[in-house]
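Repro:
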Amino acid sequence: MGCVQTVPNDRVAVITRFGKFDRLGQPGLLCLPIPCICVRAGDVSVRIQETSMTCETKTKDNVFVSIQVAVQYEVIKAKIYEAFYRLHNPTVQINSYVFDVVRSTVPGMLLDDVFESKDEVAKQVKDQLQKIMGEFGFQINQALVTDISPNRKVRDAMNEINANRRLRVAATEKAEAEKVVIVKQAEAEAESKFLQGQGTVE
């Protein structure tokens, strides 16, 4: 007697026969004609999935930074077999490769360059991941550097520099405003004296 199962819309079932891969079960009803011989070994999700990780590394100017990277990936439908049998945990593998790429890229850059080139870092992560993960049946849709955070001392120093810069700008603008007021007052006084002088002459 056969066995009927269902496969959710976002998954594909992997069917084995005597322990060997037999076929894929598409979403909907799944018929296993001979239980114990034909077995549903597992399912593969075809949803877009996301993983994020934080990498600790050091820049060229010896600043320790935490870089947060988010990666979106999905199974290539033509490579479900590879995704199921060749890789046990894709998230762990992706995280490991992201760490490798970030730690080989960022140490060659100054801290300011890391901030300015985060899209380039993300592109390198995506390109390297796609080369490797494609063999395991996964497509990398997107890689984003979502946060760059220097260690606390550097952050405090950067905040202080920015605060001082803003204070300098504010002080300059205040001085300029005061200068305009003084010039206007002087012009008004000069004009007043000139008019008074004309009145005396007449």
